[in-house]
């Protein structure tokens, strides 16, 4: 099994991983089938260009949303992006809000993550040597800064920091769970931010989460509680401006990385060769 794209595959520097409702990006693309030691990614990778920046896109659930959050091939997606040359990843995602301060349509750029998932493959380093990456600051500071500045300029309601709690799903939270998460001071809730962020760190990639709030989670809102239809409807209402924002962030990302992310694996004995 090959872990590299063919020699003819187009290269990209920036990766975008689309979430629920975000199944395509860029018009003029070339589709690349990349196999990886972890199986195929969610879909062929779409490679194109935006304002001179080469971009690779993959929808994490697949373009027909066939992968539920606990079955997404997270390792294959990030490995495939890196094997095309990607070093900076933008990760749009639909999330719930755990505070009435952030209503539907708010953009959250979390700076912390709490993992409440279970049983997901969350590391590349399983045999041959122990690798323990630092994860105190799970997101790329330069990517977050760029995204926040771009969103502010574009007039978004913005939460430029916050803690994203990632639940196992696929069910939504009970009211009691949701109230408990909120009581911890956590502000956003989703199902895919982990292990995506840590796998990116294990590949020394920059990773920035762009969270579109689609709903107030069950503990915050009176009434029925959140539904998948509500999430997809609100996401659909915002997808145009979110696509524009992601494009603007792509254009604004620094070409040279001066953040700590490229050094995430310095001094470590890696049991496998990164693509
Ligand atoms: C479509 S309802 C719940 C679903 O939406 C979010 O997906 P993503 O993070 O990929 O935008 C959430 O994490 C769940 O997977
Ligand atoms: N309330 C919520 N809980 C978990 N994941 C979500 N994705 C969108 N809204 C969500």
From TrEMBL:
Keyword Transferase (UniProt): yes
Biological process (GO), any one: purine ribonucleoside salvage
PROSITE patterns, per database record: PNP_MTAP_2 (PS01240)
Protein's recorded name: S-methyl-5'-thioadenosine phosphorylase
Homology family: Belongs to the PNP/MTAP phosphorylase family. MTAP subfamily.
Oligomeric form and interacting partners: Homohexamer. Dimer of a homotrimer.
EC number(s) recorded for this UniProt protein: 2.4.2.28
Residues that, per the record, bind substrate: 191, 215-217
Xref: NCBIfam families: MTAP, PRK07823.1, PRK09136.1
Binding site for phosphate: 20, 60-61, 93-94, 192
A GO cellular component annotation in the UniProt record: cytosol
Catalytic activity line of the entry: S-methyl-5'-thioadenosine + phosphate = 5-(methylsulfanyl)-alpha-D-ribose 1-phosphate + adenine
InterPro entries assigned: MTAP, Nucleoside_phosphorylase_d, Nucleoside_phosphorylase_sf, Purine_phosphorylase-2_CS
One annotated GO molecular function: S-methyl-5-thioadenosine phosphorylase activity
Domain Nucleoside phosphorylase, residue spans: 13-248
Recorded name of the encoding gene: mtnP
Site residues, Important for substrate specificity: 173, 228
Biological or metabolic pathway of the protein: Amino-acid biosynthesis; L-methionine biosynthesis via salvage pathway; S-methyl-5-thio-alpha-D-ribose 1-phosphate from S-methyl-5'-thioadenosine (phosphorylase route): step 1/1
Purpose of the protein: Catalyzes the reversible phosphorylation of S-methyl-5'-thioadenosine (MTA) to adenine and 5-methylthioribose-1-phosphate. Involved in the breakdown of MTA, a major by-product of polyamine biosynthesis. Responsible for the first step in the methionine salvage pathway after MTA has been generated from S-adenosylmethionine. Has broad substrate specificity with 6-aminopurine nucleosides as preferred substrates.
Keywords, alphabetical: Glycosyltransferase, Purine salvage, Transferase
